[in-house]
Design goal:
Bound molecules: zinc ion
Shape: globular
Helix content: 55-70%
Largest sheet: 3 strands, mixed
Strand order of the largest sheet: 1-3-2
Number of helices: 19
Number of strands: 3
Amino acid sequence: MHPRVRRFLAYFLSVLVVGDAEALVPPAPPQAAAPSAAPALAAEAAKSYLEIFQAAPELHFSTADFERARAALEQGRKTCITRFQARAKDYDKQITASRNELKRRTSTLDDAARHALHCQIQNLTLLKEESQVLANDAIPTAYENRLAKVAILQNWPAEYVKTRAQIADGSYHQRRWGDIKDIGIREIATNQQDDIKTGQDAVREMKATGLMPNAIEDPAVAGYVNRVAQDVARHSDLKIPLHVTVLDSKEINAFALPGGYLFVERGLLDAADNENELAGVIAHEIAHDAARHGHQLMRKATIASIFAQAAQIAALVLTGGVAGVGTAYALQYGFYGLGLVLNLQLLGVSRDFELQADQLGIQYAWNSGYNPDGFIRFFDKMATREGYVNGVGWFRTHPPFYARMVAAQREIMMLPPRPHAVEQTSEFESMKAALKRIETEAAKQEAGRPSLLQVETGCAPPQKAEYKPGQLIENLCAAASSR
Ligand SMILES: [Zn+2]
């Protein structure tokens, strides 16, 4: 991924999600009598989940306001996706034309002209895939996230009142796993130790298929992550030893194989802003193991069959066959299909299991002394910034944003408050510094490595300016369509 493209995407989504509220408002009908509440509503829906949960009970919008906001978002999504699909098609035509030219002139081209054509095809491919990823992943994810926020603005006031009533009359203790004072003593799933062998087999298979990135050994990174994870594990319902590995991969992901084998990828450490967020994600993964979700999902499949499938998916990523994830895109991001296949096959295939891991993870983070909102913060950030590519597995396999966020917030409300919760630590900062060095080194090595995608070397990166800073989302889509 060229840094310019990456900047473009980051900007694109920040405009879409944080952007000017006016951008999402349909033009008012000329005979409208009362002033529209649409701009105010759109502005609220552009805030973070935590701000929205706070503010929603005090806000008063009408059903018609919500209908209008939803319609505007649906319209925006459709328009924007259609335009980027058209762009991808257009690039595809240009690629075909360039290939034909190459074929036609193959015997007469001098080296310089051939090089120029090769570079052109290569760059057009990258641009095409960028448009495809925007249309298939980035735009839908960002709009789903925004629609969930509108739904929360509309429905949370009633949910909030209901939750408060449950807390007031004590009935909240009766919820699933309401016995939070017994974490570690209570039994979430029996016979966790039976998963250890499965986990060991899975680790061995993963190494054998070549899907496992190298481990990072640096104590400031690996040692630190291990300490955080072990501390969360001690305050969880996991009763078997936890093995923690940090993987040298750009994917923003963490996953737990059955039997206490936790893997945290470098991209996730890079994307986390504080220890609280990191602990929130780790707690969620530990919850999957404590509840033995992998075991339940794997009853029908063997480890070997799962990893045979993993190797196939990795091959599909390499040949561009995975829907929505461009080849160039995927590989330049270090997206090797690992997170995707593990999430699908071992961890996140079930919507119920995700909701369970959310609830337990929030409890474990809280029980370890963290602010239990770390997971929501990280999730929000993933959906609006990085989520569109690196974390694509997250959003493919997880339940709808609305259900998930409301359930998480309800659980947080039901936990006793933590006035001195841990947010940030100096160890986290040291880990970030060490990580910078590792990333710089990895980028240097990657630059020199031959790639299936950048066969032609010495090409200038694609010249393009998709946006001007400060531009509104419709203008961006309009600009895209007029080319
Ligand atoms: Zn999960």
